[in-house]
């Protein structure tokens, strides 16, 4: 029996509702599986914590998290607490300091969900997005001059390194080789307008591609690629994109797959030097928090990705199968046009775990 | 009888097919209208021109264009000619040097076109995108270090000025007030990740908004906004966005409105100090060029926007009405699921101009 230590940061808003729901599912799956157990330690780090302590997490927060096997995060963010506090004080430092340079986000239309795209079924919307998660447009470098005057200007630096670009591209090609429904890597670029960093990205992409002759590759400008998510989603196997482009494309991907309430993500440090982090694509959704209506699926599915990462792909399959059966049986939350609450939706998944 | 001098740059690929088609429509509308006439001067500036002369246009190209009342552009780009030549040698300098700081792009589902979004009709997809067209992510500032080595890095600077941000926001608010189907301006931001320039953009947005108390305003992160184009397009009146965000959102907008082959754009210098330029959102489409199958609608509609800009809104209405009637009568190009070629589609529009 293997044991895995999981740091749980439920965070704010609906994070507090969907994280406990997901843990129920994870624990039940561990029981069924029999080969592993999760032990949790909960951290109250959040905007509430910030309002009391003046920081999102203690100064040694990252050190505290470091020995864990994984981090299971809900969502952070609270009206009134600025993003540079809530996100740059917790979420983004974890992604960055723990070298979680891969943000893996499946774009998969689950059986039992209707896509907003006319005539598109689960066979046509099923690919993986690999988002660069450590550098690029989120470099946090820049500044402002002549603040508040007519001469004011602001600069933001996008920084890409060969080191950073090569590793994310290799990850994408390996993933396509091993897991792609179609063995094709599609890169997002914008080298026609963003004329220093994106041509560099393109060059490295073509170089890395030569090392994977068994995997197809192509490139689209991000504007055309976004359009193609709508007009031809079946084209994609693995999509690889910069931090910002990946951010935009995966929210769009969540929309074509039916709801942002369903979309999971994994922030991976593939080498395992640091813990990886699993979190839904959605945020803390203060508008619906505390009302018991949040869709737990994104959090549950993120938990399934955590189990996959810990070495239990069959547990991942069990969970996704149970989610699909619950949806096919018509149990759906409000974001999916149903009436089920968080508890009901979670129970429906639990009931279908045994297959 | 007013005369307007139009510089015509058909460019490459399908530009050579759709520009003449659009001119037929413009000339016929001028006849019907009776109050104005267009005189054209054609410039062969293009990638073909580059291959012969080593530049996309002569050194005094911009000076030559400057006295014109408008520029009517097809598309530039040719396989084998790098973008930094084709785009940075013609399209982008015109946008920039002629202070065409507004890129206006209607996202409008025409009657007779089916949106790829399930159950969305022309009433629900009908808004205006205002894209900042002179600064931001397309600043052309940055560089590369340690080229070709493992230490290589590339930097791109996004630069926003108060001057540039204020003027585009004022344009957007005035447009919403005067023309918005819904009097609301929605701004694209990403201040949670892009933490210098986008908070600046947000601050200026809120300041400018106070001067338009009769116009609603809201803001979304660009990831959520892209998703919302798919899940709730009816929300929007005017969307205002940075150069890059506007680029991505308008291609996505063209996709939800049925086809990139339809989407028009206007690069405006609202003060009229310099000529404005009118061009389709699509590119030169080398894959289908020379086969007579290109959809002329985007070019024709861009021409209609030119007439609107020159002071003839009723001519604009006449053209858009004729396009819609042709589509409703089932005459559609291949990108719209029909079989009509460029000539047939154009003729169908011509035939319906008298209303
Ligand atoms: C060709 C390219 C530089 C251009 C842009 O990104 O502005 C195009 O995509 C557009 O939208 O007009
Ligand atoms: C909250 C925000 C900084 C974050 C991002 O842009 O990375 C979010 O949108 C996401 O996609 O995880």
Automatic annotation (TrEMBL), chains A, B:
Keyword Transmembrane applies: no
Domain Isopropylmalate dehydrogenase-like: 5-349
Superkingdom of this protein's organism: Bacteria
Entries under Pfam families matching the protein: Iso_dh (PF00180)
EC identifiers of the protein: 1.1.1.83
Known cofactor(s): Mg(2+); Mn(2+)
Enzyme class, first EC level, given as a word: oxidoreductase
Reaction it catalyzes: (R)-malate + NAD(+) = pyruvate + CO2 + NADH
Similarity comment text for this entry: Belongs to the isocitrate and isopropylmalate dehydrogenases family.
PANTHER family to which the protein is assigned, alphabetical: D-MALATE DEHYDROGENASE [DECARBOXYLATING] (PTHR43275:SF1)
Name the record gives this protein: D-malate dehydrogenase (decarboxylating)
Annotated organism of origin: Limnochorda pilosa
